[in-house]
């Protein structure tokens, strides 16, 4: 399917943008606020100015579609032991060089070989007819396919099932408030408590996602946080301690923290995180939080 054919499908018209002068559009979905000339795509590679109309190029296109244990998201304190239908698409508004999912996140939909076309109803019906508790939006950054996620999440919510969002949290307050209305649980990937790390590695900023986490906590939604420890990037113990204190202050001592082990991936070939460092971090985090888990470490919870 050519992308020009895809844009005639229902739902591919994006929302959350403004029309600027000279045929330009400004996307207001995430804090990058990309300004797009006709034909251009945003940093996420999946939202495009098509002759003065913003297109959501990944609407109805998924890269992954599986039943997963909820613990794999990871969510450990939200319906433990249950299964959830997990859906991912393409694109991301971050550029982390250690990305574990670069094959689907660092490309546009027309560059991607792993794809399946699917309508929201089919996803909702599959979740309802299985032993799934609902749908998880995951694998790549789901907020960059906001319209498709919402077209699935609304009927999932209305049919009494659960919506789970696994995200980097880099979304503007207005779309976030729409998402909060129909969502039950979030796992937010917090990469550092240092804005410089966000600027230099992810090509993003820290403050907007702290605001996202505060909004999730204020809305009373279930929140778990994932922190991938990348040696030499975000392993400063003082900052880590500040971060865990901040999570406890904003989301409560019961918020769940997953400290995950990094392995070489995509553009980063630094050796994996030392297990001894992860155990030290877990001990430190347990001083502020009740639920701290080590991830990507066989046999260590
Ligand atoms: S969602 Fe994509 S196009 Fe929109 S501002 Fe963010 S990176 Fe840019």
Share of β-strand residues: 15-25%
Q: What is the global morphology?
A: globular
- The class by helix and strand makeup works out as alpha/beta
Low-confidence stretches: none
CATH topology of the largest domain: the name is TIM Barrel
Order of neighbouring strands in the sheet with most strands: 7-8-10-11-12-13-14-15
Number of domains: 2
Query: Which ions and ligands are bound to the chains?
Result: iron/sulfur cluster
Written overview of the protein:
The chain folds into two domains: 3-56, no CATH class; 61-295, TIM Barrel (Alpha-Beta Barrel), CATH 3.20.20. Helices cover 29% and strands 23% of the residues. α3 (120-128) packs parallel to α4. It is globular. β4 (47-50) and β5 (53-56) form a beta hairpin. The strands form four sheets. It has an eight-stranded mixed beta sheet with strand order 7-8-10-11-12-13-14-15. The chain has a three-stranded antiparallel beta sheet with strand order 1-2-3, with no helix packed on it. It has a two-stranded antiparallel ribbon with strand order 4-5. It is built from nine helices and 15 strands. It has helices at 3-6, 102-105, 120-128, 146-158, 173-182, 195-202, 207-218, 237-251, 275-285, and strands spanning 17-19, 25-27, 35-36, 47-50, 53-56, 61-62, 64-69, 83-88, 116-117, 132-137, 162-167, 185-189, 222-229, 256-261, 291-295. Bound molecules: iron/sulfur cluster. Residues 27, 29-30, 32-34, 42-44, 47, 93, 144 line the site of iron/sulfur cluster.
Short note summarizing the structure:
With 301 residues, the protein is of the alpha/beta class. The chain has helices at residues 3-6, 102-105, 120-128, 146-158, 173-182, 195-202, 207-218, 237-251, 275-285, and strands spanning 17-19, 25-27, 35-36, 47-50, 53-56, 61-62, 64-69, 83-88, 116-117, 132-137, 162-167, 185-189, 222-229, 256-261, 291-295. It folds into 2 domains: 3-56, no CATH class; 61-295, Aldolase class I (TIM Barrel, Alpha-Beta Barrel).
